[in-house]
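Reopening: AAA family ATPase still failing for me.
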Amino acid sequence: MGSFEEELKALIPPDFAERQQAAIRQIDNHPEIKRLRQTYPDRSGDLTSPRRYRDVSEHLAQCDACEACPGLTGCQNIQKGHRSVEEPNPNKSDELVFRLRKCNLLKDYERQQGIGQKIKSHFIPAHILDATFDDIEPDPQRLAAITAAVKFCSTFVPGQTTEGLYLYGPMGVGKSRIAGAIAQELAKCDIDVLMVYVPDFLLEVKDAISSKTETVESKLDSLRTASVLILDDIGAETLTIWTRDEVIGPILQRRMERLPIIYTSNLTINELRHHLANVKDARDMDRKQHEKKAERIIERIEPFVKTISVGGRNRRRG
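Support: Ran it again with your exact input. Result attached.
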C-alpha cells in the first residue's frame, strides 16, 4: 500500500498546491466573483472552494469572452450566441449554479430572421427590404410621405385596416425605401407583407403561362391574400390587355375593401389612368373600351388609398 501511495504522490507536481492556491486567488479577485458576492451575499460563499473550481472557471472564462465580444459570428463561448448566467440553486439555499442563456446578439439575430420570414418579395433589392424609418432622412419634401407611412404602421390592425397609400414622385426620391421601411415595421409586429416590383413580376407571370412546372394561379394567390401588399413602381411596366384585365384587375378587385395595398409610382393617379388605357396591344379593342377598363382599375385604387407626393433630390445620383 505504501508503495502505491508513494507512486501516486510522485504523479502530483511538487508545486501543485501552490498553483491551486494561485488559481483560487485569481478567481477570488475576478470582477465577476466580486459582483456575485455583492449581489448574492448569502449564496456565494463556496465559489472559490476546490469542488467548485471547474464550473466557476468555465463561468468566468465565458464572462471574459463576452466582455471582449467580437460579434455573433466570432463568438468564442462553448455554445455560440450563449452566455453563462447565475441562478440560485433551487436545491441548496446557499449556492449558485450557472446556466447557458441566449445573449442579446443571438436574440436580435433570431428576431431579425423572424422579421425576414414575414416579408416576402419578388425582385426587390436587399437595400430596399432592409430599410427602416431610422435610415430615411426626413427632408421637407418627403416628410408628409414618411409621416403617413409611420402612421399607417402604428395604426394598422389586421382585418380592419383597409386604406393603403399611393406614393408618387420622380425617380430616385426614395419612394421604394419608404415602402421597404413599412414592410420592416409591420414585420416586427408579426404582420405578413409581400413586396413586388411590378414590371419584373408581370414579366414572370407572362413567362409562367407557358411553364409546365408553375401555374399563374400560384404566383397570384400570394398577392391576393397577403395582409399587406406593396406594389412597387406600378406604371413602369409594359402592359398588355391580358396583364391589365386578367392580372392587375382581379388582384385589386380581390383586395378591395378587405386588404390594404401600398403603391409606389412615378405617375400621378391621372397619369396612371392614361397608362392603363394605353396598353401594348390596344388595337385589339377600341379606345373607349380601353378607357373604361382603365377607369375600372383606377376605381379599385383611388378610393382606397391616401395619395401623397414624394419629392426631393434624386438620391441615386448622390
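Residues 22 and 28 are 10 Å apart (CA to CA). If you still see a failure, please send the error message rather than a screenshot.
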